[in-house]
Design a protein that fits this description.
Blueprint lengths: L7 H4 L2 E3 L5 E3 L7 H6 L1 H21 L5 H26 L6 H11 L6 H9 L9 H21 L15
Antiparallel strand pairs: 1-2
Helix pairs in contact: 4-5, 4-6, 5-7
Length: 167
Amino acid sequence: MLLDPCKKEDCGLLAVDKEGKIYPAYIISISETDFLKDPVGNWYSDTMKVIRAWTSIYVYRLNHESFDEARKIQIRLIKWHMDNIERSVKKGQRIPYPSFFQIVNFMRGYSRYALATRSYVAFYVPSSDLTGTARYTMEKVRSNLIRAIYILEGQSATFPNPDNLNY
């Protein structure tokens, strides 16, 4: 019934919001066609993922105040690095390697708050004052950071190069 923190697919059932709270990442959504093919199997499978996530959050006390505060600090740090990248992009400068690779390091599985970092990157939206090429570049930065997650998990062979993002 509980999520196994050693299973990649179980870890993917959790996400972190900007306040550091953990919640189920899996949203129950199924098409009518799929539901009609196997109503009991599909409903049970999707619902069980959410139930297992909420149960694990409660039993493991993942939303304890001290954990939330630590995740909030991590999110502020990641936001600072993303803002640093945005400032450089806005000025037409190169993407700062230290910020890009620090975010990648925080996403590694052994990193203490990898889930908070991955959630921030996954839900990142470039600031509204970015336009044109700068906005496109920040979207590329985000997609390359997400690609880095797959690479860190051993699902790809090439690591994203921030130099490829400058136009």
